Amino acid sequence: MTADRPFIPVAKPLVGAAERDAVIEVLESGQLAQGPRVTSFEEAFANYTGARHAVAVTNGTAALVVALQANGVGPGDEVITTPFSFIATATSIIACGARPVFVDIDPFDLNLDPDRIEEAVTEQTKAIMPVHLYGHPARIEEIRELCDEFELALIEDAAQAHGAEHNEQRVGTFGTAAFSFYPTKNMTTGEGGIITTNDEEVAERCRVIRNHGQARRYYHETFGLNWRMTDLCAAIGLVQLDHLEAWTEARIQNAIALSERIERAETPRVRQGDRHVFHQYTVRVSADRDAVQRKLETRGVGSAVHYPVPIHHQPIIQELGFGDADVPIAEQAAQTVLSLPVHPALEGADLEYIAETVDEVLAGNG
User: Could you tell me the CA-to-CA distances from 215 to 178, 195, 212, 219, 221 in Å, in that order?
Assistant: First the structure.
């Protein structure tokens, strides 16, 4: 880092006294596992997204698995998805016994490209699972129309997109959605996830699946595991949810400020009618990215690559036989993306320094 300023991390969870007090209150109550705070958190998050139902679980990956299972995805099925995401997007499908089918991405926002989906649909296709990558909504209306046309389930991987919107409708309400509350997400519960849906039957199946497949105690009619959220996590989530909109607006304004200043990298684009919530502020660079990262680090600016290896190239995906995909745009994106700090803790001077440093490094002067 530089001698005169602290290091700027690429992500910074905001957790304070209110979260601490909420956890202590749960500890003192004696109700540590799933209880009334989970119910309150589910109601609050459903209200936030505009969905009729929300079902809290242990983490974002569990949310994906339960959402897929609740929509009938199982052995022999195929799920069309993106190769440019965190691996849980694909492994959640595999965990259900189904096959991920990778379709290339839209170069505009690096999300699943609806124009390429139809040719991938087969008799085995059960669902389409777009990711709202970095907090930018996928072309979700178009994807929903395809789901309706081919009678497929729509599973939104909204792990990075709390509060993102398409035409003033929040993600998480177009199909069955899975959110993550990992510490680096726009809000956190420590670890945790939640499923949102407008379908009452899907919601009830989610509740059963997350609780060992039992609709009533000790009678197990559905395959499920223990995916339940604790009241400890829900208590943190209730506090964080109160701050989410303010934090989101800060992220958006920080992203605007960075894009106004950065000149030597391709900055993120936002499609008209969409609300990008900037879980990540991801630029695209043509220079030696590893060298750029090292220089940024030396000058006190954190960065990260989301994601350096497309899912279909991951060793375990290749080993399982799911690595055959023609996705040149995703492969090119993996070589050029670079995420910079955009979190709400940044101040104006931080934003100026980040932009100035990025431009100087990319100009070869850093």
Answer: 21, 18, 9, 7, 8
Phi, psi (deg, nearest 5) at residue 140: -75, -35
Q: What is the mean pLDDT of the chain?
A: 96
Closest CA to 158 of 186, 179, 144, 185: 179
Q: What is the DSSP secondary-structure string of 300-345?
A: TB--B-S-SS-GGGSHHHHHTT------HHHHHHHHHEEEE---TT
Q: Which CATH superfamily is domain 244-362 in?
A: Aspartate Aminotransferase, domain 1 (3.90.1150.10)
Residue 186, SS3? coil
Q: What is the DSSP letter of 120?
A: G
Where are the chain's structural domains?
Answer: 17-103+110-238, 244-362
Tokens of 180: 């993550």
- Number of Cβ within 10 Å of residue 7's Cβ equals 11
Q: Tens digits of per-residue pLDDT, 145-157?
A: 999 999 999 999 9
Cis upstream peptide for 353 (omega within 30°): no
Two tokens, residue 311: 């899912």
Helix (H, G, I), strand (E, B) or coil at 178: strand
Q: CA angle, 108 as apex, 347 and 267 as ends, to 5°?
A: 30
Residue-level pLDDT at 2:
54
Does domain 17-103+110-238 fall into CATH 3.40.190.10? no
Q: Tell me: the pLDDT tens digits for 189-209? A: 999 999 999 999 999 999 999
Give the CB-side neighbour count of residue 234, counting CA atoms within 13 A.
26
Query: Is residue 1 very low, low, confident or very high in pLDDT (cuts 50, 70, 90)?
Result: very low
The pLDDT assigned to 275 comes to 98
pLDDT beyond 70 at 365: no
